[in-house]
Specification:
This protein is an alpha/beta fold. The protein is built from 21 helices and 30 strands. The protein has six domains: 102 residues, 3-Layer(aba) Sandwich (GIY-YIG endonuclease); 73 residues, no CATH class; 193 residues, P-loop containing nucleotide triphosphate hydrolases (Rossmann fold), CATH 3.40.50.300; 171 residues, 3-Layer(aba) Sandwich (Rossmann fold), CATH 3.40.50.300; 58 residues, no CATH class; 89 residues, Ribosomal protein S10 (Alpha-Beta Plaits). The strands form seven sheets. The protein has a seven-stranded parallel sheet, sandwiched between helices. A six-stranded parallel sheet has the order 16-26-25-17-24-23, sandwiched between helices. It has a five-stranded antiparallel sheet with strand order 2-1-4-3-5, with helices on one face. α1 runs antiparallel to α11 and α3 runs antiparallel to α4. It is globular. The two termini are 40 Å apart. It binds adenosine-5'-diphosphate and zinc ion (ZN).
Length: 746
């Protein structure tokens, strides 16, 4: 496929459509387009009764079908997809069990998948203030639920949302929106698409820094591997603040000097103006790729990259598909981050796709992390990747001292429940006295994380999901974090009708309340997805922290990475063991990573900082190892655990979720599927756990069962994928999904 056949000779094009069926359709190339349609070309074709877009993936002399429809239109002068992109997306379809059309769609910006043009975005504005809007929503709740949902979505969106997004979030059609518009509650306007490029502005260039010895050694190892022009992967394992980014920058500079291009992936949340500007100071032709880009912007950037007018793209997950003509280097910062894994089909992992792409294009890959994934460290041990280490902080700063607090003991000694231990309270007070900043971390939003009845023991859960409702004090509502259903807190238990409901568990809202009480004169900011609705909020937070206008920052994982504030000297982790109780074999690894990352926020200046880690299980090996900055001993122990249980990196997993409205049919289907899958391999070659009800056994109105397939054999994985695909094609009352190398096991 790497060579374009002479197109004249082939009157039939094989076209892949963006649909779930994994097959190509034959179309006749009409005389007017003869010789013009090449592999990777985007075409418009009739399909059923409509006109749709597709991609030419093959050119043949004849078709086995007698009557072929004609291709209607060739949509671009040049093929949109290179032969490598075709190969990579074909690999994705096979590996991640999606259709080729779906993996092609994932690799292209959304605007290229539609024939639609135009730059205006229909936007809905709320015409009421917040209180009025809430009252109106209450009223509509009784009169017309879709209208109530529209209002709630608008309130959550800060009073303004694009129409398409609004109806998606409110799970409704446009008609309730129009009704609300007629009565003057909302207004529809056409907004210009926001331009992210325009806001980039001019920037002062900066020369490369003189590397430390460690950095120089790391760079030399990378460039000598990369200069051969061959494929290779380097794991750059460097503690927080060790100067990994400088190494990326200089490795990229060499690649760019050689006329090739580089992709830098960072977790979406770390794609801050600060991060972007570090790259823009070094390279003139930088593109930024993230989810907030408008369609027109995306198209322009994509075309520039394809034309070789961009040297470096920095972006989130989907930037891995940047259409560079001569890709030389892929940098994946925070390679252990699970946000590189897409949760919707195609459920690809950008790091793994990156390694495959680099192999196809003879490029080099740098995986960077202070807490590498077990998979990548193991690949170094096996000699597949090269390990390069940075052991010291630039400028000689020490890693912060970590204090572990046993909250069982703390509560026993105080004889009352508390969120903030005496140690953390004191450390915070001292830091504030020294006019330094404090970050408090808790990975749960809301006020109370459970509402339960002390009379009958019922925990209030969502009517559509088997998930406890969280009380959000700011809006005075109970919220389901999975389907966004919200309702007013009842006064009586819905199950026994006795007014004995109590609010338990704590989220960031409660921490904020408590801290305000403890430090009434200081400036607090809470950063979670309730308060940080847009990029703009997040950028403000950033500037305010830098300017010293915030004393205490309280937040979820949103603040755990990518932020580098020199004046933060104390970091508190409020419930370090929160993730340990989850039924997920990565629970320990996540706990280790989170503590290490959060701790890395403290003491970026040379005096070193202080970290207080509170938990009910302080002796757990992941908390213990993270507290002594000992990745080595964590890795050893965790690797042993995985080996014993046969989990990755000792096997590959595929998770199959079966769901439907009738619990009996779901269960039966899951057992039948297991039978089929066992037939896919010999007894020793495939291990299947389950079927069992998924940890979230009921979600968005559907019952869920799951199966976990463990196997190392590519051949068997193929058969499992094929079996699941056959069922997916049927689309009956019970549906199944497959997730290859899953990160979400709930
Ligand atoms: P990491 O990504 O490993 O956490 P950074 O790349 O953010 O670390 O580096 C930490 C700090 O050290 C940054 O402020 C960076 O500008 C600075 N720095 C990195 N390398 C050098 C160097 N060789 N000389 C001087 N300062 C450096
Ligand atoms: Zn729900």
């Amino acid at each position: 496929m790497s060579e374009q056949p002479a197109p004249e000779a082939f009157p039939v094009a094989q076209v892949v459509l963006v649909i779930p069926a994994d097959r190509a359709f034959d179309y006749r190339i009409p005389p007017g387009l003869q010789g013009m349609i090449r592999l990777g070309a985007r075409v418009s074709v009739p399909f059923g009764r409509r006109q749709t877009q597709g991609f030419c993936v093959g050119l043949v002399a004849e078709s086995e079908h007698a009557k072929l429809k004609d291709i209607t239109e060739l949509l671009d002068a040049e093929p949109l997809l290179s032969p490598t992109m075709l190969r990579m997306t074909r690999w994705m379809a096979d590996y991640y069990a999606c259709s080729w059309g779906e993996s092609l769609a994932a690799a292209l910006p959304g605007s290229m998948r539609r024939v639609r043009r135009g730059r205006k975005v229909r936007t809905v504005l709320l015409r009421l203030d917040k209180t009025e809007a809430r009252e109106e929503a209450e009223r509509q709740e009784k009169a017309h639920r879709p209208r109530a949902r529209v209002l709630q979505a608008l309130i959550r969106g800060g009073g303004e949302l694009p129409l398409a997004r609004l109806i998606g979030e409110a799970k409704t059609s446009v008609s309730p929106v129009y009704t609300l518009a007629k009565s003057g509650v909302v207004e529809l306007v056409d907004r210009e698409e926001p331009s992210a490029l325009a806001s980039l502005g001019a920037i002062e260039p900066e020369p490369p820094r003189t590397l430390t010895e460690e950095q120089a050694t790391a760079l030399a190892s990378i460039t000598s591997a990369a200069s051969g022009g061959g494929f290779g992967v380097t794991l750059l394992y460097g503690i927080t603040g060790s100067g990994k980014t400088e190494v990326y920058l200089q490795a990229l500079a060499e690649v760019v000097a050689g006329g090739r291009q580089g992709i830098v992936l960072v977790p979406e949340i770390a794609l801050t103006p600060q991060t972007v500007s570090r790259f823009r100071r070094r390279f003139e032709r930088v593109a930024v790729w993230h989810s907030a880009l408008g369609d027109a912007e995306r198209r322009t950037q994509w075309q520039k990259m394809r034309a070789g007018q961009v040297d470096v793209v920095i972006g989130a997950r989907s930037a891995i598909f940047a259409p560079f003509p001569r890709l030389g280097l892929i940098v994946i910062d925070e390679e252990h981050e699970s946000s590189f894994k897409q949760s919707q089909s195609p459920r690809y992992h950008a790091r793994d796709v990156g390694v495959v792409r680099a192999r196809l294009e003879n490029a080099h890959v740098i995986l960077g992390s202070a807490t590498p994934s077990l998979e990548s460290t193991r690949n170094c041990e096996l000699g597949k990747y090269t390990l390069v280490r940075l052991r010291e902080r630039v400028g000689g700063g020490r890693l912060p001292e970590v204090q572990r607090v046993d909250m069982r003991q703390e509560i026993a000694e105080l004889k009352r429940f508390t969120l903030v231990s005496r140690q953390l309270h004191e450390a915070t007070r001292n830091a504030l006295d020294r006019r330094e900043q404090v970050i408090l971390f808790l990975n749960r939003r809301g006020f109370s994380t459970a509402v339960l009845c002390t009379n009958c023991g019922t925990t209030l859960s969502c009517e559509h999901c088997d998930v406890p409702l969280t009380f959000h004090k700011g809006i005075g509502r109970l919220l389901c974090h999975y389907c966004f259903t919200e309702l007013a807190p009842p006064s009586d238990c819905p199950s026994c009708q006795v007014p004995k409901l109590v609010y338990r568990g704590f989220g960031t809202e409660k921490v904020e309340d408590e801290l305000r009480a403890l430090f009434p004169k200081h400036r607090l900011l809470r950063a979670d997805s309730d308060t940080m609705k847009s990029r703009r909020h997040y950028e403000n937070l950033f500037e305010d922290m830098r300017a010293g206008e915030i004393d205490i920052l309280i937040g979820t994982q949103m603040i755990a990475k990518g932020l580098d504030f020199p004046n933060v000297s104390v970091v508190g982790v409020l419930a370090a063991d929160a993730a340990l109780s989850l039924p997920d074999f990565r629970a320990s690894e996540r706990t280790y990573q989170l503590i290490a990352q959060v701790a890395g926020r403290a003491g970026r200046r040379s005096e070193g900082g202080q970290v207080v880690v509170q938990s009910f299980d302080p002796d757990h090996f992941s908390i213990d190892a993270a507290s002594s900055h000992d990745y080595g001993s964590f890795y050893k122990q965790e690797l042993e655990n995985r080996r014993e249980l046969g989990y990755p990196p000792f096997s590959r997993l595929m998770r199959i979720v079966v769901q439907g409205k009738q619990p009996d049919r779901v269960r039966k289907f899951a057992f039948r599927l297991k039978g089929e899958l066992l037939g896919a391999g010999g007894r020793d070659e495939v291990a299947i756990l389950g079927p069992a009800p998924a940890p979230i056994a009921y979600l968005l109105g559907r019952h869920r069962w799951h199966l976990l397939v463990k196997t190392d054999e590519a051949r068997i994985r193929r058969r499992v994928v094929d079996a699941v695909r056959r069922h997916q094609a049927l689309r009956g009352a019970v549906r199944c999904q497959i997730d290859v190398d899953p990160y979400d096991l709930l």
